[in-house]
């Protein structure tokens, strides 16, 4: 998402902050609802972006379009019932929240494009950024490589033996992920997910599909 001018950059900032803040809040809220007090104890059950920002990750998000938020700490031993299933649900909550935000943004964008609601160019650009950013955040986090959410979601679906293999890969996950990003292979993985989600959301909200 290259910036054409300073205004584009200033519009991008609140869009990315909303995306990552709601993503991390969703993880913490679902974990708390499942019985884990850790997110609440660490002050993560808030929509204040400051509570969720990692300084280096935020700078990279703003200027390199790749970065990270402060991960929500979760202790599955507090979960009632199946711990592995609980972790899968918590992990799914973040990308799901991004899909919801993308849908809401697209819904407003569709109304604006049909001139159903009054809107100026700045808000139009903001909504467009909000949709695009949240689609990318959802899709990227669904890559099944630790420490991304997709790895824990996959571990919750697979048989326990296969899930244990994924857990053992966690120590190598960041290195594998970095290699995927540097080589550009990560885009080959999450790109089709972005297109699939965009097709569903744009169709549902009446926006011409153009991804």
Q: Structural class given helices, strands, pairing?
A: mainly alpha
Count of strand segments: 0
Percent strand equals under 5%
Quaternary structure: single chain
Uncertain segments are: none
Number of helical runs?
9
Specify Rg, calculated over alpha carbons: 18 Å
Topology as a string of helices (H) and strands (E): HHHHHHHHH
Q: Profile the largest sheet.
A: none
User: Mean of the pLDDT scores?
Assistant: 89
Specify the helix fraction band. 55-70%
The best one-word shape is: globular
Distance between the termini: 14 Å
Explain the layout of strands and helices.
Layout: H1 6-33, H2 38-41, H3 55-63, H4 83-113, H5 121-141, H6 149-157, H7 160-168, H8 173-183, H9 185-205
Task: Report on the architecture of this protein.
With 211 residues, the chain is mostly helical. The protein has a domain at 6-63 and 76-142 and 199-205. The protein is 68% helix and 0% strand. The protein is built from 9 helices and no strands. The chain has helices at 6-33, 38-41, 55-63, 83-113, 121-141, 149-157, 160-168, 173-183, 185-205. The protein is globular, with a radius of gyration of 18 Å.
Give a quick rundown of the structure.
The chain is mainly alpha-helical and 211 residues long. It has helices at 6-33, 38-41, 55-63, 83-113, 121-141, 149-157, 160-168, 173-183, 185-205.
